[in-house]
Amino acid sequence: MSGFRNFLQSGHSPTLFAAFLYFSFSCCIWVLNGAMAPFIGETFSLSPAQKGLMLSVPIIAGALMRFPLGILSQYIGRKKATLVEMALIAVAMLFGFFFVKSFNDLLAMGVLLGIAGASFGVALSLGSGWFPPQHKGLAMGLVGAGNVGTAVSVLVAPPLANWLGWQAVYGVAAIAILIPMVVMVLFAKEPPDVNAHSSFREHIACLFEKDGWVFSLIYGVTFGGFIGLTTFLPSYYYDQFGVSKVQAGQLTMLAAFMGAAVRVAGGWISDRWGGVNTLTVVLLVVTASLVLVGVSSASLAVTTLALIVCFAALGAGNGALFQLVPLRWPASTAVAGSMIGEIGALGGGLVPNAMGLSKQYLGSYLWGFIFFAVLSLVMLGVMRVMQIRWTRTWAEKGGRARIAPAHASPAVNNTRKAARS
């Protein structure tokens, strides 16, 4: 406990909490269509391919909005950017409540849900911005644990949809987003870890660097797999095993909650063992567990256990990768995180589409799971090649943070004092 207290005292814990809450509510709203997919599918009589498209639109839209929000945050501040985004989320939810009457309206609603998915890079950068390099992995892991919002969504939305009707859930979300807005206004402070004199080209330099694209592709497996599977699984459980709509959400919650919780551990482990070492184990476990899910489609118990293991690995991988981001781009973490989050989350958009097409044209979901297992293995090979240069330039062996030289410590101390004032 003393170690954790020291961690909290090294930064600004109210900002950390506000960023976590903001990201949690955003994740909850982002996957609403996935959580309510069994209800929506019945209302519009959707085919597997249509359902896959409907589920992928919010993920892709959210991914594409992440980088612009990250750029905006570099100029108006991360705290202000979160408030702008949450106001837009409230408006989007009101559209869903009043105007979704057809499948095309549903796809438009998916685009609006993507506004909530844009929160990622700004949330992590805001929450971890006050913390020194050796604690950024844990700070980002704690904020990133806001992924638990996806578990809350698949647990709470189906009963609400049963009770009030699925469109009314959008109205509930419009009211709920006011909670993190108030917390953000009252408790968050803008971190000092941005170079205000950097040019636009310097802010977006990560777009032109090989490391940024490698990080993004790895994140396409870890976070893309997490958000894509979370969105898809309620439909998979309902269609494949014939459970009720509410039970499908509860089973999905088990896996999603595990992934969100283990993200914190992934960041903490990576601070000590190294992000590269952690990701190596993660990608191997993801590959094996996805293959097991694909071949165990006749057993609900085996499928659920394999998915829990898979989500635990995905969550740890998300924390591990974002332990590396502030080490590689210390002065533009929000932009780099948003770019990586944007491209990585696009991988999540592939999941429901691939699953729907696999089911509709090949008669089974198996090949969708196999496809992502192979992708995980490929990215492991790419990372192991790239890490040779990483550990010679900006990271210690295994992907640990390099300790700042002694003469830099006063600046660090000044930042810590500012955070506590």
Q: Would you kindly provide a brief summary of this structure?
A:
The chain is mostly helical and 421 residues long.
Reconstruct the topology from this structure.
Layout: H1 2-9, H2 13-30, H3 32-35, H4 37-44, H5 48-76, H6 78-99, H7 103-117, H8 120-128, H9 136-144, H10 148-164, H11 166-176, H12 178-187, H13 200-203, H14 210-241, H15 245-273, H16 275-295, H17 300-328, H18 333-362, H19 366-393, H20 409-420
Helix pairs in contact: 2-7, 2-8, 2-9, 2-10, 2-12, 5-6, 5-7, 5-14, 5-18, 6-7, 6-8, 6-11, 6-12, 8-9, 8-18, 9-15, 9-17, 10-11, 10-15, 14-15, 14-17, 14-18, 14-19, 15-16, 15-17, 16-17, 16-19, 18-19
Explain how this protein is built.
The protein is mainly α and 421 residues long. Helices cover 82% and strands 0% of the residues. It is globular and about 55 Å long.
- Calculate the terminal CA-CA distance, rounded to whole Å: 23 Å
Count of distinct strands: 0
Question: What spatial form do the alpha-carbon principal axes imply?
Answer: globular
- Mean pLDDT comes to 88
Q: What fraction of the residues are assigned to beta strands by DSSP?
A: under 5%
Share of helical residues: over 70%
Taking pLDDT < 50 over at least 5 consecutive residues as the criterion, the unreliable ranges are 405-421
Element pattern in H and E: HHHHHHHHHHHHHHHHHHHH
Largest sheet: number of strands, sense, barrel closure: none
Radius of gyration: 20 Å
Q: With helices defined by DSSP (H or I, 4 residues minimum), what is the helix count?
A: 20
Backbone structural class: mainly alpha
